[in-house]
Amino acid sequence: MTEKYAVVVIGGGAAGLSAALVLGRARQRTLVVDAGEPRNAPAAHMQGYLTRDGMPPAEFLALGREEIARYGVELLRDRVVEVTRGENLTGVQGEDFTVVLAGGRTVRARRLVVATGLKDELPAVAGVAERFGRDVLHCPFCHGWEVRDQPFGVLASSPASVHQALMVSQWSKDVRFFLHTVAEEELSDEDLRRLATAGVEVVPGEVAGLVVEDDRLTGVRLADGTEHARSVLFLAPRAVPQTGLLEGLGAELHETPFGAYPVVDATGLTTVPGVWAAGNAIGFAEQVVHAASGGYRAASAIVGDLLMSDLDAAAQV
Known about the structure:
FAD/NAD(P)-binding domain, 8 helices, 26% helix
């Protein structure tokens, strides 16, 4: 027979584990399905999380898994391939969900938390993928302090790149903005004024690759052979939201400059009754601390939702 859970949490990152912790403590039978592909895996440390500043992401997740196990939450390393809304005995669509896993298992859930995150699609520049999370970085709030006062480069890779170049100038006064495939004429007068005021040097020309010596970044090489000595390169990856399961359920999405994300309320409830989303599943800029908070909010809302549903059902008997 298909096993039934109060809640299935899809995704075992900060958002999913935080939701599972709250649900377990609320005595809700919960299953976490984790594909084991955290977005911050390339990073050696995570920063800005009070009392966990500098902790390796893998260690943070390992501690989270230990904590949810204390409350009877089950964790399964697998991938959800399909979710459908269940039907009751009369064939009418009910509130249960059927969750099909890649490993062949099928489970039922009364509520869902989708914490599938997103994937970072990096620019096709030689050396970038190999050094991402080390000295090729995307977030100054995550890594700026650790690389402060070093020579920075910023690769123009998205509409947000000018903003990124301006932001990182707070951590270094030696910043060069490599336009790469962007023509200088595409920058507005306001962009150029702000970059100049911040002391950011604009460098035209396509970037061909990185210069690496002794396993560390030492420079950025342009297509014409010119090399610029840099020890850190910031860029903005293209965010690819993992919304397939939500779309399959009919969740409404809204377009942002960083992709399409589900429409949610303050607790993370999507437009599909019984389905919540949290973490990078709802937006590009959700850091670990935000993801954990979002998972908590979703779980607490689910606990109340299940209680009211049960009380209403009991009153009708």
